[in-house]
Structures are given as structure tokens and as C-alpha cells.
Amino acid sequence: MGVPCVRVPVTDGEATRQRLAEADAIDDGYDITVEEEVLYVPVTDPTLVPDSFDVVEFDAPVREGQTMPADELGFAPSYERLGDLVIIDEDDPERAQRIADAIVASDLPVEGVLNRASKIKGTERVRDWEILAGDTTEAVHREYGCAFELDLAEVYFSPRLATERHRVVEQVREGEQAFDMFAGVGPFVVPFAKRGGTCVGTDINERAIEYLRDNAARNGVADRITALCGDVRELAADYEGWADRIVMNLPHSADEFLATAVELAGDDCTIHYYDIQPDTDPFGPGERAIRSAAEPDYEVTVETRRTVRSYAPGEHNVVIDARLRR
């Protein structure tokens, strides 16, 4: 039975393995295989793989002696990895505990299992968690060469958005001035700074800003990042006309902050605007809102319209990359 694998020449093998490991994408349940000078690296989720790699189906051998949760359960459970934690989303308490027990009993390197116990709530965008194994909600998550310490019970973070974040990061040029209006623990601004950007990150969650400062230091870019706690609408005056790039990852209400984004924008600025809309018109409302806020002071060019993921039946999490030129 085929599994998703990254296919590269053997000569590129070690560099590829390291990059996939940084993205936490390697599937340890299967052996890395060589056939005719081609290396096949099994991956857990193709969406975690950088676009520059070729992902194919390949009959990789199961690692000898490696036990996986499915071996115990008889089915493959859905879960996410966040550092040494595993996250599941199960409504049935008995099924949730059974899955957690199987994960712990497997050969997956885990320190704990968490089950989502509520939806995201409040201005600080946190949710409740049920600890099914282990004793913590804190982890160090590694993503494309950066490490982020965080506590899921105190801050918002989604490992599912790793590929989307990397897509944006790869657009950053050395010397850019980038502003993340809802920065969280720094998954945008930290890699921006590692690419040579000067960054400002704001968040209303004080704990998120504390983690952002720690993560900037952890990744060696504290000198390039300013982290500010508070409502960005009250902090923007000091950065009027400053930004070459703005991230607006608050998809349920980003439209309420577009006037502030325009205030922050420099003469030539790219805005990454995240939204949740029905599949009947996923991009129209966001594009109209951006134009309403920016025109006629700016010429608005929509450079990218992209569906990030399915959010709910009939609804999508989308992003619009809009370039504003004064």
C-alpha cells in the first residue's frame, strides 16, 4: 500500500531529511528507502511539505518493530503533532481515551495527548483542553527551521497553518519592514526576521507577547523584532506609513481592522488578509472590504486568492494577498 513520500536524488537526501524534520513532517512509521539513486522519505501530511519538493505515492516498508496507534485500534485515528504533544478532536469521551491510550502505547515520540474541549473563544482566541495523557499543555513546536515555545491553554496556535505560513515567509525580502497585527507567539514574524526583515508584532494576549519575545530570543532574532501587547488600533499611530508587509490573520473579524492596516501601510505594501467565507463567494467580501478601506489613496492589486483549508461545511478559510501602492 502506497504512502506519501518526498522523492529526491540520493545526493540531496540529507539536506531534504533535515528540512522535512524541521517541518515535523517525517513519518517515523516507515523506512526511508533508496531505489536506483532515488530517495523516498515518508511524510505524515503532504501539506506540511514545501512546494519545492515532489510528493509521490510509494510502497515504503513499515519500520520493523514500529507500532502505530492503528495497530492497537484497528483504524487510523486523526491527530496532529505539536512538538511532543498529540492533539485529537473527539466528542466521545470513551473513544477519545481509547485513542490517547493507543497513541501512548505506540512508538510515536509523545509526552502527552490533548483533546479539544471547546471552540476558540474570547478576544485572546484560546480554547479549553482535556489532558488525556501527560500533565501539560505546553510544548516546543518546530516549523521550517524555527522553534516556538507555547502553552495551548494560554495562546492561540494552529500547526495546520504551517504550509500557509511558509508560503508567506518565502515572499519576504531582506530589509523589509513587516507588521503582524495579531502576532501570537510569533509564527510569522520570527521567520520573517530570520530572512532579514525588521518586524513588529502586536497581540492583545499578554501571554502570547511574552512567548513571542522568548521565541524571538530562542531563534536569535530578538534584535529584529518589536513585540507590543495591546489592541493594534491603539498602537498603530507610532508606525503610520511604516510597513512593507502586513499580516492580518484574524479571519472572523479582520475586516474591522482594515482602516488600521491602511494606516500602517507604506507607499508599496502587501497585505495578507485572512477570511472565512461561504464557498459561494469566498473571496468577494474580503476583496471589496480591502478596496473600500484603501481606495482611492492606494491602487489595489489582488495578487493571490487562495483557499487555505476547509473550515466548516460550506465555509472556507481563505487568504487574499493584496498589494497597495500609493
UniProtKB/TrEMBL annotation:
One of its GO terms (molecular function) is tRNA methyltransferase activity. Signal peptide: none annotated. The keyword Transcription regulation does not apply. InterPro entries: MeTrfase_TRM5/TYW2 (IPR030382), SAM-dependent_MTases_sf (IPR029063), TRM5-TYW2-like_MTfase (IPR056743), TRM5/TYW2-like_N (IPR056744), Trm5a/b_N (IPR040601). GO terms for biological process: tRNA N1-guanine methylation. Keywords: Cytoplasm, Methyltransferase, S-adenosyl-L-methionine, Transferase, tRNA processing. GO terms for cellular component: cytoplasm. Gene3D superfamilies: 3.30.70.2580, Met-10+ protein-like domains, Vaccinia Virus protein VP39. The keyword Metal-binding does not apply. SUPFAM superfamilies: S-adenosyl-L-methionine-dependent methyltransferases. Residues 79-326 form the SAM-dependent methyltransferase TRM5/TYW2-type domain. This is Class I SAM-dependent methyltransferase family protein.
